[in-house]
Write a structure and sequence with these properties.
With 190 residues, this protein is an alpha+beta fold. It is 24% helix and 49% strand. The strands form 2 sheets. Strands 1, 2, 3, 6, 7, 8 and 9 form a 7-stranded antiparallel β-sheet that branches. The protein has a two-stranded antiparallel sheet with strand order 4-5.
């Protein structure tokens, strides 16, 4: 995992310290579950169910890219210390599973996850000459933007849309709602 660390005392002027860490993890994960049989410890062979009882198999090749940066500036002036801190994270996740595309009816690669977050903090610290008294003030600003898509949400959304579009289902739903209202009204009169 590529990492870059920078530390510098007396950075631009005297008593200004810089610390910066940049990490770029690139992750590739693979999960293969395509076995058609399962062998027990005693030697018996049974059919495998894949991921579920419907014989759904996986062969995923997922990719994830991240960028993480931690930046800190610290300035000390006698008993006063000022600190500026920034933590930034960007993550991009790309799933890929051709077997899932076959049995779900859509490509999971169209459902990536992305996240961007940033935390900026500014702090001030005062310490007495004998360090018996300390006073600090901190201000932070947070930013988070996340887009996460789950394939199960997309699948249930597709089924719901198909059901609502069907006029037969709409009539059936109205009948059920009318029946439920009638039962509720009758129960209230008892």
């Amino acid at each position: 995992m590529p990492t870059l660390n920078m530390e510098k005392k007396n950075f631009i002027f005297k008593d200004l310290e810089l610390k910066n860490t940049l990490v770029v993890p690139i992750i590739r994960s693979n999960m293969t579950d395509t076995a058609t049989t399962r062998t027990q410890w005693n030697g018996t062979v049974t059919p495998a169910n894949g991921e579920t009882e419907d014989n759904l198999f996986n062969e995923s090749h997922d990719r994830q890219f991240e960028l993480r940066n931690k930046f800190n500036l610290k300035y000390t002036l006698g008993r006063h210390t000022f600190n500026l801190n920034d933590q930034f994270v960007f993550s991009d996740y790309r799933p890929k599973d051709d077997h899932m595309n076959e049995y779900l009816g859509f490509d999971p690669a169209h459902f990536p996850a992305k996240m961007t977050s940033n935390n900026i903090g500014l702090s001030y610290l005062f310490a007495s000459s004998n360090n018996r008294f300390q006073n600090s003030l901190t201000i932070s600003i947070y930013y988070l933007k996340s887009k996460i898509y789950r394939t199960s949400d997309a699948l249930s959304k597709d089924k719901t849309e198909k059901r609502i579009r069907s006029p037969t289902d709409q009539r059936e739903q109205k009948r059920i709602m009318a029946l439920a209202k009638g039962l509720a009204m009758n129960c209230g009169k008892v």
